[in-house]
Amino acid sequence: MSRADSATVMEHRKQQAADRQPPKRAAAPPAGGGRGPFTQYKPEQGRVIRMGTFIGVGALLIWGTKFLYDRLSVFEGDEAWHLLITTGIPIAFLAAMGAFTWWVVFSSRGAGDFMIATEGEMKKVSWSSRREVIGSTKVVIMFTILLAALLFTVDLLFQTVFRWIGVLKV
After folding, report:
1. Average pLDDT per consecutive 10 residues, the chain (170 residues; last block may be shorter)
2. Can you give the pTM of this predicted structure?
3. Are residues 89 and 151 in the same domain?
4. Tell me, what DSSP letter sits at residue 46?
5. For residue 34, which of 24, 29, 41, 144 is within the disulfide window of CB 3.0 to 4.6 Å?
6. What DSSP character marks residue 76?
7. In this structure, are residues 105 and 42 in contact, taking their beta carbons and an 8 Å threshold?
8. Residue 71 backbone phi and psi in degrees, to 5
C-alpha cells in the first residue's frame, strides 16, 4: 500500500469515527447558573409559599423600619443631619433587607428548592372537611366551658373549706 493510499484510509477512518460521535452540546452555564442576583430560580414553581413568605417577611421589615425610625428620632443636631439620620438609615435598612429577602426567597437555589418541596408536600396533605372542622371546634369549646365550670366549682369549694378552718379571712 502506498503512502497516498494509507493517508486516504486514515482520513476515511477519522471521518467514520467523527460520524459515530454524538453531536456536541452547547457549553454548560457557569457555576452560578449564569443568572443575575435578582433572576428568579424556577419561577413557575412554589409561587404561593414564596409570595406568602415574602409578604410575611416584608411586614416584619416594615415594622422593623418603623421601630428603627422611632428609636432614631431622639437624635438631636442640625436639621439636615437629623433628617438624614432619622429617615436615611431606616430607608437604607428597608432597601437592603428587602433586596436580601428577595434574593433568599426568589433567587436562592437552596431556599427555593425548600419552598418548592414544602408547597408540594402541602398539596399532598389530606385536609379535614368544613363539617369535620366545625364539629371538632364545637367539642373543644364545650370541653373548655365544662373545664372552666369545674375549676370554678373546685375554687369555691376550697374557699369555703379555708374560711371554715380559719386560714382564709375576708
Report:
1. 66 72 55 64 86 94 94 83 88 94 89 90 91 97 98 96 86
2. 0.55
3. no
4. S
5. 29
6. -
7. no
8. -70, -35
* In-domain check, residue 57: yes
- For the chain, report the end-to-end CA distance as a whole number of angstroms: 128
Q: What residue numbers bound the domain in which 145 lies?
A: 126-170
Q: Say how far apart CA 71 and CA 90 lie, in whole Å.
A: 10
Same domain, 102 and 160: no
Residues 119 and 55 reside in one and the same domain:
yes
Query: Residue 67: helix, strand or coil by DSSP?
Result: helix
- b/e string for 22-38 if b means 16 or more Cβ within 10 A? eeeeeeeeeeeeeeeee
DSSP-assigned letter for residue 128: P
In a domain, 58, yes or no: yes
Structurally, how many domains does the chain consist of? 2
